[in-house]
Amino acid sequence: MAHVLRRLLSVGEPTDALVAPAPPVPPSAVFRRFWPYTRGWRRWLLPIVFFSLVGPLVDAAEIWLFKIVVDDVLVPRDLRPFLWIAPAYLGLVLASGVLGFADDVSSTWVSERFLLSLRADVFRHVQGLSLGFFERRRLGDVLSRVTGDVDAVETFLLSGVADALYYVIRLGVFLGLLLYLRWDLTLLALLIVPLFWGAGRHFSRLIKEASRERRRLSGSVSAIAEESLGNVALVQAYNRQAWEERRFERESAGRFRAAMASARIRAVYRPVVEVIEVTGGLAVMGLGTWKLTQGQLTLGGLLVFLALIGKLYSPVRGLSRLGTTFYTASASAERIIELLDQRPQVTESPGARRIGRARGDVEFDGVCFRYPGAASWALSDVSFHAAPGQTLALVGASGAGKSTVAKLQLRFYDPDRGAVRLDGTDLRDLDLSGVRENVAVVLQETLVFHGTVRENIAYGRPEATEAEIVAAARAADAHDFIELLPEGYDTLVGQRGRTLSGGQCQRLAIARAMVRDAPVLLLDEPTSGLDAGSGRRIMDPLRRLMAGRTTIVISHNLMTVREATRIVVLDHGRVTEDGTHDQLLRRGGTYARLNRLNGTTGVGAPGKVLS
Ligand SMILES: Nc1ncnc2c1ncn2[C@@H]1O[C@H](COP(=O)(O)OP(=O)(O)OP(=O)(O)O)[C@@H](O)[C@H]1O
C-alpha cells in the first residue's frame, strides 16, 4: 500500500530537457520580488474585500432562512411564514447573483490589467538584453516564459492574495456565526483544521516539484516548435520531418509525464481532504444528534449548524489548496525571475554623452574580444581606422572575426581590451541609442518583417516621409520592382521576406539603410547570398548608399573590396595584412592569394564591375 502511494506521489527524475531549470526561489521571496509590481492595483483589492465580506453574510442569511423553514414551517406544518420566507430567499439569491457578477468582472479586470503591464515590462526587459543573451538562449523557451509563465505571477500576487483574503474573511464570518450558535460543537469541528494544514503543506511541496518540471518541459516544447517551424524550409529540404517529430514527441512526452505526476498528486490530495472533512462532519453530527435527543438543540438548529460547518470547511480547504496554487505559480514565477535577473552585458554608463549626428570617424584600437564562455579570442589586438567617408574592407576566411567587428561597432558587445571609437570617443562613453542611430546596416541575412514594403523601408527611420521612402527605393533600384508588386508600396511581404527574391530583399534593405541616412554604414556580406547577376545589380545601389559615408564592408569573396580606401585582412582574429588593393597584391600575401582564387573560381567576377 505504502509502495503504491509512494509511486503515485513520485514526481519522477528530472529528464535532461533542452531547457535548464530556473534556480529555485522560496515563495516568500517570489512574493517580495513581485509585490512592488502591484502598486497601482492594490486599491482594487478593497472591492474584493467588500465582496468577500458581503458574500458570506448573504450565504449565512440563506442558511438562516432554511433554519426558519425547518423550525417554523416544516416541524409545526404551518405554511404562513413561508409567504415571506419565499420572496426573502429569492431576494437573497438575486443579491448574491449581482454580487457574484460584480466580483467576477472586477477581479478579472484587475488581473488582466496587471498582466498587461507586467507582460509589457517583461517584454521590455527581454528586449533590452544584449545580443549575447539571445545567442545563448533558446528563443522558444523565452517566448514560453513571456507568454505563459507571466500569468502565474498574477495568480501568485493578485488572484492568490484576493483568494486568500476571500477565504480568511469567509472563515472569520462563519466561525463567528458558529461560535455564536454552539461554541462546543464548533471547537469539536475545529479539531481537524491542523490535519488540513498538514496535508496542504505536504502536498504543496510535491506539487511544486512537479509544476517546476512541467513548466521547464513546456519551455523545451516551445523551443523545439520554434526551431523546427522557423527553419521549415531546411527541415523539408533535408527530409528531416520525422527526426524533428521525434524530437518534438520526446519533449512533449516528458511534459506529459510531468503533467501526469502533478495530476496524480492532486488526485490523491482531493480524497485525503474529503476524508478529513467528512470525519469532522461526522463527529459534529454525532455530538449534535446526541444534543438533539437531549433536547438541547432543535432539528433546524442542527441542520443549520451542519450546513454552516460545510461553509466553514470550504474556506479552510480553499486556504490549504491555495498553498498548492501558490507553489504551482511560484514554479513559473521562478522562470520569470531568472529572466528578469539577466542583466544586459552592454549598458549605458551613467555619464554617457549624447552624440547626435557623428562625422563618422571609426577606430578600433587594440581591440581584444572573446565571446562569453568561448575558449579562444574572436579578435586579438585588432586596430584600424576609417576617416569620415572612407571605405574600409574586412577580408578573411570564415570564422576570422569579420562579423564580430560589426557586432562591436554596433556595441552589441564591448571589447575585453582596447577600445572602439566613434569620432574619437570610446563607444562606452556615448549613449547607446546614439551609437546605433549613427550606424546603418545591410546584412548577409536580410531582415524583412511581416508588413508592407513601405513599413519595411521606413523601419530605418519611422518618421521618414513618403517622398523620402520613394527616393530611397529609387536609389536602391527597388522602386521599379515595387511598382510591379500587386499593391505597390502597400504590398505585404511575408515574414523574412519570403515572398520576395533574395536580390529584392537586399534592395529593400539598402533602401532602409538609405532612409536611415547614418554617417556609418556596415555592409556584412551584402552580396553573398546572391547569384552573380543579382550581385552585380545591387552594386550600383550599394555605391550610391556608400557615397559620403564611412563604410565598413565585410566580404569573403572580395567582390566589393577593390575600391576600398583600405583593406584589412583578418586571420583567426588577428590583423595580418593592411593596405590598398594594389599594395596588398604587390605584397603577395593572403590577400593576393585570395584574389587569385577568386579570379580562378569566378566568384570575384562581379568585383570587376567595381574596377
Ligand atoms: N555568439 C558567439 N558565441 C561564441 N562564439 C562565437 C559567436 N559568434 C561567433 N563566434 C566565434 O567567433 C569567431 C569569429 O566569428 P565571426 O562570425 O566574427 O567570423 P566571420 O569572419 O564573420 O565568419 P563568416 O565569414 O563565416 O561569417 C568564430 O570562431 C566563431 O566561431
Provide a short characterization of the protein structure:
With 611 residues, the chain is of the alpha/beta class. Helix content is 61%, strand content 10%.
What does this structure look like?
- It is found in: Cell inner membrane.
- The chain is an alpha/beta fold and 611 residues long.
- It folds into three domains: 308 residues, ABC transporter type 1, transmembrane domain (ABC transporter transmembrane region fold), CATH 1.20.1560; 175 residues, 3-Layer(aba) Sandwich (Rossmann fold), CATH 3.40.50.300; 69 residues, P-loop containing nucleotide triphosphate hydrolases (Rossmann fold, 3-Layer(aba) Sandwich), CATH 3.40.50.300.
- It is 61% helix and 10% strand.
- The protein contains 21 helices and twelve strands.
- Strand 11 and strand 12 form a beta hairpin.
- Helix 6 packs antiparallel against helix 7, helix 8 packs antiparallel against helix 10 and helix 15 crosses helix 17.
- The longest helix is centred in the middle third of the chain and has 53 residues.
- The protein binds adenosine-5'-triphosphate.
- Adenosine-5'-triphosphate binds next to helix 12.
- The site of adenosine-5'-triphosphate has 13 residues, from helix 12.
